[in-house]
Amino acid sequence: MSARESLLDAAFAALARRPWAAVRMVDVAAAAGVSRQTLYNEFGSKDGLARALVRREVDGYLAGVERALAGQGDVRERLGAVAEWVVSAARRNVVVRALVTGCWSSWLPSVSLAAVPSSSAVPAQRRADGALPSPGELVGVVRDRAAAVVGGGAGGGEAGWTSELVVRVALSCVVAPPLPGEGGGGAGELVRGVLHRQGMV
User: Please, is 173 exposed, middle or buried when counting C-beta atoms within 10 Å of its C-beta (0-12, 13-18, 19+)?
Assistant: First the structure.
């Protein structure tokens, strides 16, 4: 594992113990087993570390969407898998939950979604300093990737509408999870049922 990934892992783990404002760079470096200078060489500042952490979680979330879409089964099964991924990723990962809902708690890093000037010599940091997606933009990215599967390459029209419905149903399960014992099943089951009843795919 690279020093950068070790530092990002350490920063993410620190969020479980204290608010981001109380996370110290020296503690992150020590937890990753590298010098504080290595941390600053890689990220430039605590804000740079925060942006890189958020960028990594965005990328991981979208990679999970791609895995779900590439999975086994028919289109309905794969869209159900996307819904399940959206919900499970948001439940497991506080940064992903904030990204998809737009609800950032005081425990999380406060980062601007706009690009920030970057003079970093580290290409990964220059990318992290670029614009970060809003919740609506993330919905659009997932919708378009799913629509390309549903529509066989076409991202608009009925395929786009169906794919957006899938993402928004999944997000509703993130914001207002079904109560235990309601028999509603998970987000994937809900999506597959809606698609089947409406004859969408």
Answer: buried
* Amino acid identity at 186: G
Task: Please state, in angstroms and rounded to a whole number, the distance separating the CA atoms of residues 173 and 190.
Answer: 10
C-alpha dist (Å) from residue 177 to 68, 157, 181: 21, 29, 12
Does residue 56 register a pLDDT over 90? yes
Question: Which contacts qualify for 30-39: CB closer than 8 Å, 24 or more apart?
Answer: 32/3, 32/6, 32/7, 33/6, 34/3, 34/6, 34/7, 38/3, 38/7, 39/7
Q: What span, in angstroms and rounded, lies between the C-alpha atoms of 145 and 69?
A: 8
pLDDT tens for 143-166 read 999 998 877 655 567 788 888 888
pTM of the model: 0.89
